[in-house]
């Protein structure tokens, strides 16, 4: 019996983490934008200076930004890759490595840019 290991469970778990992130963060972001546009939250509270200060100069804000972005990358690329299968295109292993490799590079670049 073969003991060949597959990376697919890891990719599906990253997809699940990204899908969960998208499901929790983005509706909240939409509600905040609606609250600002309706005047419930003052627009100055979400000014560029305040938001960039929170997300780029505060460790808690940096972690929130990373949790919102990085898993979302993996969910998006996984949907694109498997969506190609649904459309009848069957990319080979080379394209899979390119897709997921580029997503890994993008994730590492995002982590470096946000934290350093």
From TrEMBL:
Pfam families: Fumarate_red_D. One of its GO terms (cellular component) is membrane. The chain crosses the membrane at residues 12-39, 59-76, 97-115. The keyword DNA-binding does not apply. GO terms for biological process: fumarate metabolic process. It comes from the Bacteria. Keywords: Cell membrane, Membrane, Transmembrane, Transmembrane helix. NCBIfam families: PRK05470.1-1. This is Fumarate reductase subunit D. It comes from Endozoicomonas numazuensis.
């Amino acid at each position: 019996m073969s003991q060949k290991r597959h990376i697919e469970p890891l990719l599906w778990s990253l997809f699940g983490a990204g899908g969960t992130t998208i499901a929790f963060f983005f509706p909240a972001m939409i509600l905040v934008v609606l609250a600002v546009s309706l005047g419930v939250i003052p627009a100055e509270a979400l000014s560029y200076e305040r938001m960039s200060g929170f997300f780029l100069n505060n460790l808690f804000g940096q972690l929130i930004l990373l949790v919102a972005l990085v898993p979302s990358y993996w969910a998006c690329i996984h949907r694109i890759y498997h969506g190609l299968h649904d459309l009848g295109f069957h990319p080979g292993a080379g394209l899979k490595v390119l897709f997921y490799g580029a997503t890994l590079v993008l994730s590492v670049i995002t982590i470096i840019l946000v934290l350093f």
